[in-house]
Amino acid sequence: MGRRLLVAVLQMLMTVFVASLVLFALIRLAPGDPAKLLIGRTMDIAWDAAAYESTLNELRQEMGLNGSLFSQYASWIGSLLQLDLGTSFYTDRSVAAEIGERLPSTFLLAGTALIIQMAIGLFIGILSAVHSGTWFDTVVRLLCVGLASVPGFVIGLVLLLALAVQMGFYEISSQATLSRLWLPALTMGLLGAPQVIRVVRANLLGELGQVYIQSALSRGLSSTRVVWHAMRNVLLPTITLTGLSFTSYISGAVVIESIFAWPGLGEYALNGILHKDYPALQGYALVMVLSVVVIHLMVEALYVWLDPRMTRRKKEAVHE
Amino acid sequence: MKIVDGQKEKLRIEQLEVSYPQEGAMQTALKSVTFTLYEGEILSLLGESGSGKSTVAKTLIGLLPSSATVRSGTLILSGHSSIDLSRPSTSWSEIRGRGVAMLFQDARLALNPMMKIREHFRETLHAHRLASKEQIASISEHWLTRLGFTDPSTILNAYPHELSGGMCQRVCLALTLCLRPQVLIADEPTSALDTVNQREVLHLLQSLQRELGLTVLLITHDIALAEALSHRVIVLNEGRIVESGLTSQVLREPSHDYTRQLLASRDLTSDAKAISPPDASSLLTIRNLFKTYDAEQPILSGVNVQLHVGEIIGILGQSGCGKSTLARCVVGLEHAQSGTIHFRRQDITHAKGSARRRLARHIQLVFQDARASLNPRFSALELVQTPLHAFRVGDRKERLERARYLLEEVGITGAAQHRRPPQLSTGQCQRVAIARALALQPEVLICDEAVSALDMSVQAQILELLQRLHRQFGFSILMISHDVRVLRAFCHRIAVMHEGRFVEFLQGNRLSSGEHAHTRLLLQGADEPESV
């Protein structure tokens, strides 16, 4: 068990290292010069060319953009090892501090959305599997297809228009308060629910056709009890899906966060891209990679813990 | 044992008629089935697949699939009011478990893989409010002990996958018996087990039936089993009862043609002349083959055998003895750690990639589950062409003709050639699989339990077919089976396999001369279990 964990952690570190290389290169490959952008903001363009060049050079020096790509990467990794993500070009603040401020609100939104998604998905999924072939099941399936084919921002905007602008249920501001959480979370939860419904329904239907269900029924167990039997086996694929959803929520929240002006990491990344803020973007991407890897590790651990077949191999200890 | 007149009726089923939708129309699966189960007897419902015997079992416990329609039928269980089965409102939860209990064919599948055995007992006893929390452990241990487990608490803490098939079936029996059911339906309770486990479960079933005075409805295709266990027999064919009576009467002096046919198929033709003799030159030589998955117990530990041109060697062994691994090693699907396999002087032990592909021209494998080995989306004709296509044999027209010819040879003719596996019977699927294996004219055919999933009469047909094809094409066969009956009728030599090696080679017709202890154990299993 200990060895398994060690291997998993080493694999995780490898993944993060490779990802850091790729994202560092990608960010720098994108066209545009952050120093020029910054000058354009702080100075008048009408300067003479020589002074412009020398200021640009000074600025590049200051931003650490003058060395080779390799030395830039090395110095980034070097400060990274001291848990320093660098200073934002744009705000002049520590990237770590800025991400630290925004990370909780993104996780809060993603977590709430996940709970809503799972609650809707499990409830409707189980119901439509148990009543498969009825009108209810058909309506659910149609709704799922409908919901899955509408882009996320459309649903977000429609909900915002209806609940905030028309009815005034929802206050529009840029504070990350609990009273502002529910609408973006509901939007994301609704968008994710069809996937859960489909996975739960299909897996549950498959399990309900298994012999152990017939056997349980033949021993006089009630039909609700038997659904619980099957759900234990549906749990595993559902957990995989939950992990995937969570990672997509924290990394893909950009659209929903900007619609609802939710001050999370998505908004931060968007600003970083607009200003070519290398340290901010690198820091953001690295935190995302780390979160995804950690979540995957947790899902794997959960799997091992939940599925007896993973740890308890057929041992002849049960010989008599 | 004779059934005394006036014995108490336990269960009666009257005028049962069930139909399933098939190809657009309702197909009758059972037609006016009426029978009675008396207290303390074992009644066998004997029939081949498709006879409707499983439908009877499922009807009695209310587990028919929703597509089935019960046209008519009354179930009378002693102590309960009579139930009109054609009405869907029956409250089965009162009957299931305590009134009628059921033992399934594959016990491994009948237990929830995510639950410990303890939990199975707990919820079963709990559902019927038969025990308080404190009593559950002692009750389950009591029943596990009665089923021959010496260490019941270990079993209670085990998950199903940690137990063997035989152990799972004993656990299932304990689970049903702890409810003290009035009637036990045993649906092919031993056909998924190997001979040694089979005997163990049967002995337990038999002795417990006597001790507890159980009333059992045994559903089986196995005549020997019915003969050994049951007091009375009902023969079912195409959804109708064709004959019923005392076991000895029905099986010794059958009055119906179908029963006679069924009994005849039991004795596989043991005509040594029907098998053409082998050539002296060797074709496949296996030396000291060794393979292991974990260090503790090797799966193959020194297999030695030489297969001659035209020879049929039977490999006899219990499940888990390594016979299927050996087959997979020979065709290159798995690789041995040491030892060699030579085919015509060429070392094929570690054939991979294109070398393994080339090997497929010479050595072909036929699997146990024919239906699962065929892609359900292809028709029989397309399936037989796939190997020809893979090796670019002939042009399109020639391949089609060859496939037609092969299918005719194995008895798939006319419209059946255009059907896909789901529309073919299991026997037909195995015929298609054989035709496909023969498409490239291989020199060695490996049959891995190729007939064990089939009905007796179909078994006989497939073996006859293999014999004829063997005469016609002269290939060699490695016939893997756990069934002595099949091998005895078919092979030049039989190799007895135990714990990864051959312990003895016997002439096909002189099996009883086997000296090794394990051979005797297997042969004993083949003989009919002691009668009641």
Automatic annotation (TrEMBL), chain A:
Protein known as: Peptide ABC transporter permease
The ABC transmembrane type-1 domain, residue ranges: 103-299
Organism ancestry: Bacteria, Bacillati, Bacillota, Bacilli, Bacillales
CDD domains from the UniProt entry: TM_PBP2
Chief location: membrane
UniProt membrane topology term: Multi-pass membrane protein
Compartments, as annotated in UniProt: Cell membrane
Species annotation: Saccharibacillus endophyticus
UniProt keyword Transmembrane helix, yes or no: yes
Keywords: Cell membrane, Membrane, Transmembrane, Transmembrane helix, Transport
Transmembrane segments: 5-27, 107-130, 142-169, 181-200, 234-262, 282-306
Family: Belongs to the binding-protein-dependent transport system permease family.
UniProt keyword Transport present: yes
Signal peptide span: none
UniProtKB/TrEMBL annotation, chain B:
InterPro entries: AAA+_ATPase, ABC_transp_ATP-bind, ABC_transporter-like_ATP-bd, ABC_transporter-like_CS, P-loop_NTPase
Pfam families to which the protein is assigned, alphabetical: ABC_tran
Keyword Cell membrane carried by entry: no
Tree of life domain: Bacteria
An annotated Gene Ontology molecular function: ATP binding
Every ABC transporter domain range: 11-263, 284-524
Ranges in a coiled coil: none
Keywords tagged on the record: ATP-binding, Nucleotide-binding, Transport
Cited NCBIfam families: PRK10419.1
Protein family (similarity comment): Belongs to the ABC transporter superfamily.
UniProt protein name: ABC transporter ATP-binding protein
Organism: Saccharibacillus endophyticus
